């Protein structure tokens, strides 16, 4: 049995659906985790394969990207946002979502390179509440919680849209990664499952039991905001993101 740590958010529902409804299902145990946990489990050998946040790739001495599918976007992604009641220039403090490994770096890159602001960064704890932001504070929030949180604030900045406008590139949040080399046969079956999933968005939404937006909005989000194919432009984006990540203080 291969243990697979997959992201628990709606954007991964098509992948989960495809894996469950194809032949690879009998060879795997699917674990649903938030992105930072997907990274921790792969590092600690609690998973054989993870949908790994790109921001965690540097944790590994060596790794294998086993699929041409990813969690990416071309322009607005909707679910990776800097949320506040302020204009960018008035933001002094940014709380960082503990569930993220990629977007916490992305927001720092955007602050430094694109927005030219230098706020203080503070890591959020799981018990912190995004509803208690004070004046001049903002929060980087990812995943399905954004769909709820965005209702309470007036300034919602989509980080993928900001990246796209400035660098003219798509963005990649997570890729399928193993630490050890897995068999070619398994990888082929895995990819067949992922392919089935990205071609079954409606059914994946119907099977996803934590939907916090309506069905049509979910379908629109998965078809138009999330971009699942890891093509040349997205590989270029990963390379640039890693280069820029190396220039920021952690
Ligand atoms: C598109 C998203 O990107 C997620 C953000 C990640 C991160 O910041 O580490 C990792 C995986 C993605 O699922 C989202 O949060 O909805």
Automatic annotation (TrEMBL):
Pathway: Quinol/quinone metabolism; menaquinone biosynthesis. Its EC number is 4.2.1.151. Keywords: Lyase, Menaquinone biosynthesis. InterPro entries: Menaquinone_biosynth (IPR003773), MqnA (IPR030868). Transmembrane segments: none annotated. One of its GO terms (molecular function) is hydro-lyase activity. It catalyses: chorismate = 3-[(1-carboxyvinyl)-oxy]benzoate + H2O. SUPFAM superfamilies: Periplasmic binding protein-like II (SSF53850). Pfam families: VitK2_biosynth. One of its GO terms (biological process) is menaquinone biosynthetic process. It is an enzyme of class 4 (lyase). HAMAP family: MqnA. Belongs to the MqnA/MqnD family. MqnA subfamily. Catalyzes the dehydration of chorismate into 3-[(1-carboxyvinyl)oxy]benzoate, a step in the biosynthesis of menaquinone (MK, vitamin K2). This is Chorismate dehydratase. The lineage of its organism: Bacteria, Pseudomonadati, Bacteroidota, Bacteroidia, Bacteroidales.
């Amino acid at each position: 049995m291969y243990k697979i740590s997959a992201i628990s958010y709606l954007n991964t529902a098509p992948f989960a659906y495809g894996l469950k409804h194809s032949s690879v299902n009998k060879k795997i145990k699917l674990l649903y985790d938030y992105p930072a946990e997907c990274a921790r489990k792969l590092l600690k050998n609690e998973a054989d394969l993870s949908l790994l946040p790109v921001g965690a790739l540097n944790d590994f001495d060596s790794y294998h990207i086993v699929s041409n599918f990813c969690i990416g976007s071309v322009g607005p992604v909707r679910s990776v946002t800097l949320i506040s009641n302020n204009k960018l220039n008035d933001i002094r403090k940014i709380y960082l979502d503990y569930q993220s490994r990629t977007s916490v770096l992305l927001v720092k890159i955007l602050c430094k390179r694109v927005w030219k602001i230098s706020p203080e960064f503070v890591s959020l704890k799981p018990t912190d509440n995004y509803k208690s932001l004070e004046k001049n504070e903002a929060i980087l929030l990812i995943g399905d919680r954004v769909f709820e949180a965005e209702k309470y604030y007036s300034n919602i900045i989509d980080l993928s849209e900001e990246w796209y406008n400035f660098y003219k590139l798509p963005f990649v949040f997570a890729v399928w990664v193993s630490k050890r080399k897995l068999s070619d046969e398994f990888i082929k079956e895995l990819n067949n499952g992922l392919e089935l999933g990205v071609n079954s968005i409606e059914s994946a939404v119907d099977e996803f039991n934590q939907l916090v937006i309506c069905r049509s909005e979910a379908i629109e989000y998965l078809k138009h905001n999330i971009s699942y194919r890891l093509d040349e432009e997205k590989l270029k984006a990963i390379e640039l993101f890693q280069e820029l990540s190396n220039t920021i203080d952690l």
